[in-house]
Amino acid sequence: WQRRFRSRDLAVISDPEVCKYGHATPSAERAKTLVAEVENLTLDSTYTAKTAAELIARQELPEGAGRLVGF
After folding, report:
1. Phi/psi of residue 7, each to 5°?
2. Are 65 and 10 in contact (CB under 8 A)?
3. What is the pLDDT of residues 20-51, one digit of tens each?
4. What are the angstrom distances between the C-alpha of 22 and each of 1, 3, 38, 60?
5. Cβ contacts of residue 17 below 8 Å, gap of 6+?
């Protein structure tokens, strides 16, 4: 099975705090802890935790986002 993604399937959000490439942020660390406690999942501090932090802050997927969200 192969899926092709179109530009409308993705939402790219640019935020100066999130864009500190390769570095954890305070909000990412908080999200990492929350997801570990609530979902028993371990997120890395620099990429998936940043994405989780932004989704938690927004409390919903950005408009137009299909299944993937990138920051």
Report:
1. -60, -30
2. yes
3. 677 888 989 999 999 999 989 999 988 889 88
4. 32, 28, 25, 25
5. 25, 27
CB 71, CB 15: distance < 8 Å:
yes
Residue type, 44: D
Position 60, amino acid = E
Q: Which helix (H) or strand (E) holds 60?
A: none
Amino acid at position 49, single letter: A
Name the band, by pLDDT with cuts 50, 70 and 90, for residue 69.
very low
> What pTM was estimated for this model as a whole?
0.63
- For the chain, how many residues are written? 71
